[in-house]
Specification:
63% of the residues lie in helices and 14% in strands. It is α+β, with helices and mostly antiparallel strands and 196 residues long. InterPro entries: GrpE, GrpE_CC, GrpE_head.
Length: 196
Amino acid sequence: MSQKNHKAEDDRDIKDRVEEILDDAIEEIEEIDGDEVDSEEINDEDLSQEELLKEDLQKEKDKFLRLFAEFENYKRRTSKERIELFKTANQEVMTAMLPVMDDFDRAMNELRKSDDENLIKGVELIHNKFKETLRSKGLERMQIEEGADFDAEVHEAITQIPAPSEDLKGKIIDVVEPGYKLGERIIRYPKVVTGR
């Protein structure tokens, strides 16, 4: 017997089985219809069971939606915390490097007073490379101008002196030590002198 014939017989057997199952189901339904059972009682029971099932389903949907929302909030919060952690992970190292940066700035100011141009250029190259490396890691120097308004949340006043003019009262007169930010976070507040 060829494979086609064998396959055709299998298809017929499957069709016959499906037809038998459908016939049996139809007979069962006809028997139930023929029985002397009060259909209103069945409907009331089915409705109450159906309503109970719908309520249970609705409760489960609510639980699922709440759980899904909590999970989404958790994912969003942890990813935000992770990004913040990556941005500020090297905060200790950056804070330790700030005095070195200050010393380097002071050394550059003193070197500029000398006459050796080659020495100034060489040290200036190293100084710029150091600053650019720290900047690429997220360190940013806070720009504060003399005469700007003093803000206690951003500046650290170390002393007050008499203002040279009336318009400098309560304003920044001098910046003693620059401030730095790492990302959006201030890691060192600028130390300033204010006028009174």
